[in-house]
Amino acid sequence: MTSALVPLPVVLPLLGSGAALMMSRWPRAQRMVSVVVLAAVVVVAALLLVAADREGPQVVWLGGWRELGIALVADRLAALMLLVSSIVTLAVLVYSIGQGVTDNDREAPVSIYHPTFLTLVAGVSNAFLAGDLFNLFVSFEILLFASYVLLTLGGTAARVRAGTIYVIVNVVSSALFLIAIATAYASLGTLNLAQIGERVPGLDATTALVVQLLLLTTFSIKAAVFPLSLWLPDSYPTAPAPVTAVFAGLLTKVGVYAIIRTQTLLFPDRPLTDLLLWAALATMLVGILGAIAQSDIKRLLSFTLVSHIGYMVFGIGLATQAGMSGAVFYVAHHITVQTALFLVVGLIENLGGSSALLRLGGLASLYPLIGVLFFVPAMNLAGIPPLSGFIGKVGLLQAGIADGSPLAWLLVAGGTVTSLLTLYAVAKAWALAFWRTPREAHEMALQLGGEREGDEEHETPQVSARGHVHLGSTVFAAGDVQEATRAADTDVSDDSEDDLFQLLEREGRRPRPPWAMILPTAGLVGVSLAITVFAGPLYALTDRAASDLLLRTPYLEAVQEAGR
Amino acid sequence: MEMNATLLLVCGGLVGCGVYLLLERSLTRVLAGLVLIGNGINVGFLAAGGPAGSSAFYGSADPEDMADPLPQALVLTAIVITLGTVAFLLAMAHRSWQLHGADDVQDDVEDAAIRRLAVDDETSVGHSATTQGQEEDDPEEDDR
């Protein structure tokens, strides 16, 4: 009965997208449609998860074309991913409404944002539910097209530059995917995942390996596994904050999901453990070393995102129940935490006027709530006990130790180092943006500005625009800020705690924290804490999901039975 | 399975030319490369569908003689998707041309900054030696 719900997470956002496009003249109605649709998807996903957990995978053959048509399958893994992703997208949507991306920002036209966002959600849901290789390809295309539009929203120079690279990389990876599909169809005569899974053992080993490696390469590009990750830190940070948040949270995880699905269902006999473990190690270390070098929070977080994909690949590479379960748990944890962090960065940008660490300071004393909202997910990302990041990492490290091979031990060491370096990277961001006093930040910026003036030739506009700490926000007219900064400059020698911010505050125009943005962010941080509190039941669920994945029979039988 | 060598050769030739064009700087050429790759893969799909046959309409021919309709449906979908991608990339190339007067694929801002840092780093002998060498090799790099 509940299997009738399976297509809804795809159909509802698509219909909503059409409705939102028609309502582009009535922004309020448009927002209402998008929120209602996404809330409905959350409910449907929760029902599907309960049904998939109690009664096994829910399968629908679309249009009643049994055994021939397109199957949609919601097993435990797919339903869990669906639930997490729909909660996250709902939070991001509410956040972007609060930000008013959509009204007064010239760089983000209102009429396009909501329909495109809903299309993105439809693509993501379809990717999780697809029981067919070509349907998986189509859902990737749906979500990629939406992401092209969202990434280049407004068509500014920076976004067009970043978007160009993003689009080309993804089109190439789609081409690889098509080659993989053609090869699979030529050799197996079907594209249904369950049927491929049954026929692969009869296939000659070389052909199977070609198909497997093609699929793995395709999904590794989407999931940003090193060395195919280089496009990500370049393209994500330029987009508007909510867009970056949803991309960072979801799109790479769709790639990880596709790796899990194809590796376990199609090629259970050849887990490619060595290859995946080396890739995981390189992803973790190179990613986090990149993060340490960054001086912009958005870029820093993009690099940690790449780095932590390595943990998931580690779990997948082990191909044991513990490893797979840890990877799935880590995906759920990482989606919420990474999205929450990017949303907080959006808040920082909104209040501080910049996301460059050198130009921020004193946010913890000015906005303690935002300090908390950054601190909790940041510590969670680094894996400080008792938060969910710690639980996920411990699960993966235990799986590695249980495996016991030298390479697995190397990965355990690499994972620990990465966790510590993540702590270092986020602690650096915390110390610079939140902990130091605005005065320290101001002086450091002045000093850097002075040093920079020497080499005009190489100055980047961001740094040369005077080394002032941006504590004002867009609320201030440019004239006010200039006046205040001039005053602050003259006061530098003075020992009083006067700084730009206090001067502005004395005039009673302190930027107010935007509650409509803070609430969804806080909600998402709350979800990540809930993952911590309910880690026991959730881990039990991912254990069951992992055993389903490795057994394969629940999935295969459910698809066959529904096909009859 | 019986394979059509012509189709495979055409497929390989198209994809090869496409990859060559993809390595160019100009977005328009990259776009042409992507179109060639897309078409090459579509031809590959036809090869994957097995030997040609009569059209797959119910009752029009013996099912044994019919061509496999599924790859054709897949190719149709792929063509539509390629069309959308091309339209989008053309718009991006046009926008890039509006903004910069050229449709070159730009360097990553941070990469460029790091490269400049390496050039500026006079304390490190090794660095300056290598970066100077690179500059001589590629004088255009700094002009961009």
UniProtKB/TrEMBL annotation, chain A:
Keyword Transmembrane tagged: yes
BP terms from Gene Ontology: ATP synthesis coupled electron transport
InterPro entries for this protein: CPA3_Na-H_Antiporter_D (IPR050586), NADH_UbQ_OxRdtase (IPR003918), ND/Mrp_TM (IPR001750)
Record's keyword annotation contains Cell membrane: yes
One example GO MF annotation: NADH dehydrogenase (ubiquinone) activity
Entry GO terms, CC: plasma membrane
Bilayer topology term: Multi-pass membrane protein
Keyword annotations from UniProtKB, A to Z: Cell membrane, Membrane, Transmembrane, Transmembrane helix
Transmembrane portions of the chain: 6-23, 35-52, 77-98, 110-128, 134-153, 165-188, 208-232, 239-260, 275-293, 300-321, 327-348, 360-387, 407-427, 515-540
Annotated NCBIfam families: PRK12665.1 (NF009308)
Homology family: Belongs to the CPA3 antiporters (TC 2.A.63) subunit D family.
Protein name: Na+/H+ antiporter subunit D
Protein source organism: Nocardioides flavescens
Automatic annotation (TrEMBL), chain B:
Amino-acid biosynthesis found in the keyword field: no
Coiled coil ranges: none
Membrane topology: Multi-pass membrane protein
Compartments where located: Cell membrane
Biased composition (Acidic residues): 134-144
Keywords: Cell membrane, Membrane, Transmembrane, Transmembrane helix
Pfam families hit by this protein: Oxidored_q2 (PF00420)
Predominant place of localization: membrane
A GO cellular-component term linked to this record: plasma membrane
Residues annotated as transmembrane: 6-23, 30-50, 70-91
Highest taxon above the source species: Bacteria
Region Disordered: start-end pairs: 117-144
Family stated for the protein in its record: Belongs to the CPA3 antiporters (TC 2.A.63) subunit C family.
Name of the protein this chain belongs to: Na(+)/H(+) antiporter subunit C
Species classification: Bacteria, Bacillati, Actinomycetota, Actinomycetes, Propionibacteriales
